[in-house]
Amino acid sequence: MLKFTVKRVLSAIPVLLVILILVFSLMRMIPGNPMYSLQADSNMTEEELIMMQEKYGLNGSIFEQFFRYLKNIVKGDWGTSFFNGKPVFENIFSRMEPTILITVFATLISLLLGVPIGIYAATHHNSKLDYILSSTSMIFTIVPSFCFGVGLLYLFAFKLKWFPLSSYEYIEKGGFWNSIWHIFLPSLAIGLSGMAGYARHTRSQMLDVLNSDYIRTARAKGLSDRKVYYRHALRNVMSFLITMVSGTITVNLGGATVLEKVFNIQGVGLLSYSSLFGKDYPQEQAILIFFAVIFVFTNILLDIVYKLLDPRVQLD
After folding, report:
1. CATH ID of 96-266, from 1.10.443.10, 3.40.30.10, 1.10.3720.10, 3.20.20.70
2. Is the pLDDT of residue 32 over 80?
3. What is the percent of the chain with per-residue pLDDT over 90, rounded to a whole number?
4. Contact present, 283 and 91 (Cβ < 8 Å)
5. CA 130, CA 142: separation in Å to the nearest integer?
6. CA 249 → CA 6, 20, 288, distances in Å?
7. CA geometry: angle at 120 spanning 118 and 125, to 5°?
8. What are phi and psi of 2, to 5 degrees?
9. Which residue in 69, 60, 77, 62 sits closest to 17, CA to CA?
10. CA torsion through residues 58, 60, 63, 68, sign
């Protein structure tokens, strides 16, 4: 297991390097110069603009800029934001709390709703309820999460006033449950979209497992349906669900970016949105690479968990 973990960590380095190159290149393909945005904000002169370009390393060719950027990263310097002058990771960590809460809570909602629905649909295969649940899951898959977000915001925040219309209160200020109350609607909107995927895949995997020889053997031994479903069938489905969690976390991080804009929550998603449109190169690059690191190492962790859940899996 240790050898596998070390190999996976080392193999992640070239992947992250390719991501870094792509992110750096794509940011430079966006039309316009970020220094002009600064000029519009602060009425800088042309001479001051040239000085700012030299300060932020934008006065050389794209290759010079990249190798300078790579050299600084190796030193641990990811740069400072063009617009507030603070280190990029200081900006990220100051806004990380709501984004993490939305992502984790949305993933839990997807799992806690989608898996039981998928199990019930599989164990009542071809029943009317199975058709209803499958059709409903398809609808939740098609409708984007931001549509759910707008609907939930209008109904539960604007009309019923059960939840705040916007903003977020940090745990340090209002406590954990108060923070959950503020992010519940965006988390629910993202979680409902993810729920449909878990329900459909759980149903499909459960049907495959329930038709296996060892399940027929378990039934022949006289085991109850409950033991067959939850002790034998679900245990084998769980290893598949673990592989889905990684993709779900990535999708939910992307969903949080959109929903934070809808609910005006000052998280990393909204920071990424403003950095992209403001052409804040260091800030946007740091955010995208930071999320890439989370995704890569989440995959490694889930591979290890996958092995622990199913010892038959060989990790080479």
Report:
1. 1.10.3720.10
2. no
3. 0
4. yes
5. 19
6. 23, 20, 14
7. 95
8. -65, -40
9. 69
10. negative
Assigned token pair, 58:
């934008």
pTM of the model: 0.79
Q: With left for phi above 0 and alpha for psi between -120 and 50, is residue 261 left, alpha or beta?
A: alpha
DSSP class of residue 1 equals: -
* Residue 223, token pair as written in the block: 């085991």
Q: Which helix (H) or strand (E) holds 10?
A: helix 2-29
| 278 and 34 Cβ atoms separated by less than 8 Å | yes
Q: Are 228 and 219 in contact (CB under 8 A)?
A: yes
**Mean pLDDT score of the chain:** 79
Paired tokens of 14: 């070239």
How is the chain split into domains, by residue range? 20-93, 96-266
By the 8 A CB rule, do 119 and 133 touch? Answer: no
